[in-house]
Every structure is written in structure tokens, then in C-alpha cells.
Amino acid sequence: MNTSTTLFGLDLSVLQGYGPLLLHGTWVTLKLSALALLVSMALGLLGAAAKLSPLRLLNLPATCYTTLIRGVPDLVLMLLIFYSLQGWLTALTELLDWPYMEIDPFVAGIITLGFIYGAYFTETFRGAMLSVPRGQQEAAAAFGLGRWQRFRHVVFPQMMRYALPSLGNNWLVLLKATALVSIIGLSDLVKVAQEAGKSTFNMLDFLLLAAALYLLITSASNQLLRLLERRYNQGVRGLSR
Amino acid sequence: MIELIQEYWRPFLFSDGESLTGLAMTLWLLVASLAMGFVLSLPLAIMRASHWALLRWPVQLFTYVFRGTPLYIQLLICYSGLYGIAAIREQALLEAFFRDAMNCTLLAFTLNTCAYTVEIFAGAIRSIPYGEIEAAHAYGLRGWRLYRRLILPSALRRALPYYSNEVILMLHATSVAFTATIPDILKVARDANAATFLTFQAFGIAGLLYLGLSFGLVAVFRLAERRWLSFLGPAH
Amino acid sequence: MTRKWLAVPLLAIACVSMGASAKEWKELRFGVNPSYPPFESSTADGGVQGFGVDLGNAICAELKLKCVWISNDFDGLIPALKAGKFDAIESSMTVTDARRKQIDFTDRLYAGPTAIVTRKGSGLEPTGESLKGKTLGYMQGTIQETYARAKLGPAGVKLRAYQNQDQVYADLVYGRLDASIQDKLQAQMSFLASPQGADFENSAGISDPLVPAEIAIGLRKDQDELKAMLNGAIKALHEKGIYAQIQRQYFGDLDLYNN
User: Fold this and answer.
1) Does the domain at residues A18-228 carry the CATH identifier 3.40.50.300?
2) Could you say which of B176, B193, B214 has the minimum Cβ distance to residue A71?
3) CA distances (Å), B37 to each of A13, B108, B114, B134, in order?
4) A with B: how many residue pairs have Cβ under 8 Å apart?
5) What is the chain A residue with the closest CA to C15?
6) Strand extents, DSSP E, chain A
7) Minimal CA separation from C61 to chain A, in Å
8) What domains, with CATH codes, occur in chain C?
9) Separation of alpha carbons B209 and B213, rounded Å
10) Tens digit of pLDDT for each residue in C142-190?
11) Labelling A15: which of A136, B181, C220, C245 has CA 20 to 30 A away?
């Protein structure tokens, strides 16, 4: 007699009780990716502004930042930052005579990934900002719009149109890079799949399941990006699909 | 720091006395997987850019799967997953193949880079101005000779900037090889870290080595672009 | 302009949680690599269990502190301890001179000799001559790795380093490895006791200064107060018979302490 649970007709008992853990791992991956995306986009905007600035004080560090980060593999940076981050924070808190503060590994992962992909987004936003015709900014200034208003109402919407393909690409790369956080010990989808496979001696199935879940997420992202592109390309004549 | 360099410079660069390690191993992984991936991708790219759905769809499925999943999972499947299947271990040839960690790693890397390269080359093939093809037809070039004389050279040249990007990304991707027990740069860095606990220095040296390699590759591709893409105009 | 640059580190600090201050002990944070059953392993719901974990929990109970277990890669345990990620390491870590240079240790927790695991009937001994040309696997960052690379590698043994112990056993079963080198008892109680390990056996213990057998709890240096607390707790566990009780639960009549 088989009293197995089924989902859409698929037999779930094959998961042998690892279902909830797998779901949790997927959720960790999604959360990590989304939050790292926010951090890296914020850093990207800052970095792009710095790189486009005429001041050498801003220009030079930003250039160093993007060159270094994009020239070194994610995993090396992750190991470097992850192991060093706590040590630096401890040194800082000791210096300032604050109580000991601990960084949760999840937060450390977000900071690390955000920092790394901030460099890629810097390049994305820099290229996009350069693509917006300068006349737009001048006209906005002529109308009396302040700096922040100019950015928010004129530059940003137009910039997003150019940034979107590259942004989408960076998002997909970031999503796949989160698979590496299992190497620094975070319990994401890949680590959970490995644990499950190891205990049930069925490694291949669980790894294939993890791969399928990633595929699902990337497909959904692609659809979302297509929608966003349509929205930001409103009113622009383009090639017929 | 000095002791770290003194003790580990050889493993970092080429060997730890027994096998190829560090920089040499990373370069070997990179060159081998790129070469095999490139050769495989040419016929697949032609199929991918074809008019016939029957040729296009299988390749599209292949690139969809391999570009939509992380390389790390692909490596794990090749190394830990596949070897666990009894059917593979019973077949003598497959068993001997998957037993070797290097084979598994190169398989995963080759398939991955092939998928990305196929998309790049297919895009380049599609972007050839139709006028060139019409002119070729007017001269009587058709079929295989059309591909050999016009389409492939043109597409490969146009793809050069994008392919150079893929090569750099592949270099970064090889850093995950140590999880399949391959002693590349990152493995040596971890060893150095475990022995001396100078985390920042050990991984910093690894980072510098990768940085140097990246710069080197960028320089090589810039020369290649100057040689092969100058026909596109002064910007190239 | 300066404000913008402070935004990122401040954002980072704002995200972190405040731990207990070091002076008043409310909880004890242990760093552990749970891939070494029956000493330390993970449970299906993400927690940790095992002989070492039970001893740690007993010590916390003795000291009336809350125990917190933080998982980490084995070769990252010492850097993480020094960075302050946890207060102590309880992960079957052997006391070696190299490690003593970096951190401090409590009194002995138990003893763990090193041995190799091979297929039954293979006739392989844990020596360079016997293993020449064969492939030997181990977990990265362990004393077994140090020993293998110093004594066995130069003798012509092919070496393979793995992320954790489970992967070592997996490849041993698959046939990628001819032998694996780890703590003798750990292999005995976990792998060799499982159906996967039915065809394998342990060798005799290796006695070599590079693979000492003393296992203790690791601490940062200059933590005399904590060290005294932990040593006192360990002594109390022996005196109250709690140690013997836990030991019997896992190992029956085996005496790990005087092994």
C-alpha cells in the first residue's frame, strides 16, 4: 500500500522527506539573489556616477573597483571577502570600543555578492547613462528641474531602456553565482540538494532537481525581463519581432 | 607573507612536486575546454541559425539548459551525480572515463562553454548583412563553400568581441574546479590559507594571478581584433 | 559626497545583529564542521548532532550557558575563530604544534588515532611503499592531509583533497579512491558501520608525530577565563559520570579518553 503524497500527479514520496528543506533552500537562494541585486544596483548607480564624474578623486577609485572586481573570479572574491569581513568588523568594533557585533552568514553573502556585482552594474549604468542624449539633461535644466528631479524624471526612465538588456544579463549571472555560496557554507539550494543526495544515496536525482529549479527561476526571470523591456520601450520604434 | 610566497610560489605557478597545479593547471583547463567547446560549437551554431526547426530545436534546448543552470551544478552532476549511476559504472568505457576527475571537469566545462559559444556564433551568423550573401550567390557560391568562404569567416570575426568576453568568463569559471579535486590556483590558495592562516594574503595572491591572466587575455584579444576586425572601420 | 561613501559600510553594520558582550557569558558559541559522524553531523532539519555535540551541550549545561552551534568548513574553522565568528571550536580538531601557534586548546576531550580505510582484501597498508601508485583521498585542512602530503605524496602516492569527509567516502565507494585517510574511530562508527562500508576495513592506527591523537576544544589565545571554565566543566563531566554516560551511548564499552 502506498500512501504517498502527490503534487500535480507527481509522486512526492521520492523526495523522502527532503521536500521542505529543498523548498527552504530555494527560498534562501531567491532571497539572497534579490537582496544582492538591490545592493549591487545601488552600488552600480553610485559607481557609475563616480566613474562619470570629472573629479579624479572619484573617478580613479571607481575605475580600480570595476577593473579589479571584473578581473578576479567570483569565487576567489567570495572566499576573500567572506573570511575577511568578520575579522575587519571585529577590528573596527574593537577600535571604536563597541560591543562585539556578528555578521550573519546570509548577510555576509549578500554584502559579498552585492559588492562583486556592483562592479558589473557600474559598467551597465555607465554605458546606459552615456547613451541618454545630453540635450535631454540640458532641456530639463532649462525648465528649472533640480538635479534629483532631472535624474528621477528624465534621465532614469530613458537610461533604463538602454540598461535593461545588460541588467537582465547581470541578473542571470548573479542568480547563477549564488550557487557558489554553498561553497562558503550557506544552506542554499545546491547545498541542500547535496545533503539530501548524500543521505539518500541518490545524488544525481537531487542535483537534477536543483538544476530544474534553477532553470525554472531563469525562465521566469526571462519572461519578466521581456515584459519590462516592452514597458520601457514604449513609444520607441524598433524592429518588428 | 614572505614565507608564504617562498613556500608556495611553485605550487601557485606550476607544480607541487607530483602533479600540475596552480596557474599551469588553470591554463590547461581553460585552453582544453575552450578548444573542445569551440570545435563542437561550429556545427551546432550552424544548426542553431538554420531555417529548419528540426535542426534548430535540439540545439536550442541544449543551450537553454546549459545557459540556464549554474556551471557549479553542471560540474557536480558530471563529477558526483553521474558516477553514482550503476549503469555507468557497469559499462567499462564509461566507468574509466568518469573515474578520472579531470575528464569529468573538462566535460562539464566544455559543454558549458559550447552552449554560450553556440549562441554567440549563431547570433553572429544571423547578423551577416544579407547583401553579402546575395553577392555570394551571384558569384555561384552555394552550400558548403558558401559557409567556408563567407559565412564562417565573417561570423567569427564579428563574434570576436563577444567571444573574448566569454573567454574571460570561462577563465573565472575554472576557479570552481577545485571542488572536483583538481589542484588549480584556488586550491593552492586554500592550502596556503589552511597552513598559514594568512587568509587575505593567500587569496590575494590567487586574485592577482587571475587578474594578470585576465589582463593578458584582454591584450591578446585586442591584438586579434586589430588584425581581424579592422575591416569594420576605425572604431575597431 | 563623503556621506555617500559612508552609506555602504553603515548599511552593512546596520544589518548585523549584536551578539552578547564578551565579559558576561550568557551563551557559548561553538564552531563545528558537521561532516564527521558520529562525532559531528547534521540532522535533517539543519541542526547538528553527535558525540562531540553532546559533549559540548553537556559542558554548556555544566556552565549554565546557552549553546549555539555554527557550521563552517573545516579548514575555515581557525580563521573564523580568530575573526570572532564563534567562541570555541568543537569539531574533532586534533591538537598539533602548527595549530598551537595560532590558537589555544583546552585539556583533552578525547583521543583519536588516524588510520586508512581500504577495500577488504586489498592488502594495502598505511605506508608509502604499499600505497605507491594508488590514489589516496582526505578532507582538506586536516592533519591527515598534512601527513599525506609530507610522507605519502613524495613516496609516489596519488593524493586527492575533498571539501568534506562525505565526499571522500563517496569517491571511495565509487572506486575513484583506493584508500582514504581520516580519524580511525570516525571511520569505524560512521562509514564502516553503514551498508556502504560493508566491503571496507580500517587499518591499524598510524603513529607519527604529524598525526597526534589528542583532540580538544579550540580557543582564541588570551582567553584564560574561558579556558579555565571549559577545563573545569570537562573535569566535572568526568567526575559526575556524565562523560562516561554519553560515551557509552555512542561507543559502548570503548574508552575514547584513554585510547
Assistant:
1) no
2) B214
3) 39, 10, 4, 31
4) 104
5) A107
6) 6-7, 10-11, 101-102
7) 24
8) 27-112+213-251 (3.40.190.10), 114-202 (3.40.190.10)
9) 6
10) 888 889 988 888 888 889 999 888 889 988 988 889 999 998 888 888 8
11) B181
Boundaries of every domain in chain A: 18-228
Interchain pair B99, C153: CB under 8 A: no
ipTM of the complex, rounded to two decimals: 0.86
Task: Read off the amino acid at residue B37.
Answer: G
Distance CA B199, CA C199 (A): 40
Grid cell in block for residue C54? 553532546
Q: Does the domain formed by B25-186 have CATH 1.10.3720.10?
A: yes
User: C158 to chain B: which residues are within 8 Å by CB?
Assistant: 18-19
Whole-angstrom distance, CA of residue A181 vs CA of residue A169:
20
Q: Which residue has the cell 553573502?
A: A109
A100 touching chain C per CB within 8 A: yes
Rounded CA-CA distance C132/C110 in Å is 32
Q: Do C44 and A21 touch (CB under 8 A)?
A: yes
C162 contacts in chain B (CB < 8 Å): 181
Q: How far apart are CA B110 and CA B37, in angstroms?
A: 5
Helix (H, G, I), strand (E, B) or coil at A100: coil
Whose cell is 572604431? That residue is B235
Q: What is the pLDDT of residues B76-109, one digit of tens each?
A: 999 988 888 878 888 888 888 888 889 999 999 9
